[in-house]
Structures are given as structure tokens and as C-alpha cells.
Hints:
The protein is an alpha+beta fold and 134 residues long. It is built from three helices and six strands; from the N terminus they run βαβααββββ.
Amino acid sequence: MDVTIYHNSDCGTSRNTLALIRHAGIEPTIIEYLKTPPTREQLIKLIDEAMLKPREALREKGTPFVALGLGGAGVTDDAIIDAMLRYPILINRPFVVAPLGTRLCRPSEVVLDILPAVTAPFAKEDGEGDRQCR
């Protein structure tokens, strides 16, 4: 199965999502989007395929969100996309693309919607304990 994760190794949710993908027996293509940001077309496609609006894919915490004034009601989708392209840290993560769909995997378990069934227990790194994946 061909799976791609737009990954930030400093993010626990992204690391947990990657671990869940690997737990399903899949070695994904890993795109470290802070080093290799998506093009405008790729970013728009990710957001559209995940059935989100640009504002829903926008990360606030630890970003220039406030400094750029992105919280205002009058900020357009194009302005949000432009900001994400200029400052990739504004792109929420992780996005995962699989044959079964594209999702912004927050929380990390969302990735299970687009992976084959996983029946073995899985423990998240944040200590939430074992979880029966499916």
C-alpha cells in the first residue's frame, strides 16, 4: 500500500501517526514538510482531499499565526494558503495520503480510517496505554 505522511519529527502526534502506519506493516514515504514544503497545488489538494477548509488545516500553537493576523474573520482562504506556503510551520500535521483517502491525523488514530485493519494492540508514546486499533 502506497502511503505518504507529511511529517514533523518534533511533533508527538506526527510520531504516533507514523508509528501507527508502521504498526500496520506499511513503510510510508515520509515528507518532512518543514524542509520540503508542498507546492501551492499540492497543499490545496491535501486540504481538499481531507475535506477541510484552509482555516481548519492551519496550525496556531508555536507559529506566527497571531503575528500575521490570521485569526481575523476577513482573512481569505488564499491569504491562509499564502501564509502556509511562506511559513510551513503553519500547516497543521500530520497529513497522510493513502489509497483509502487523505486525512489530517489529529488525533493520530484518525489514520486508522485510511489504513487496512490493524488488530494488534498499540501503545502511544504519550503513555495513553494500549489501544486495540481495530
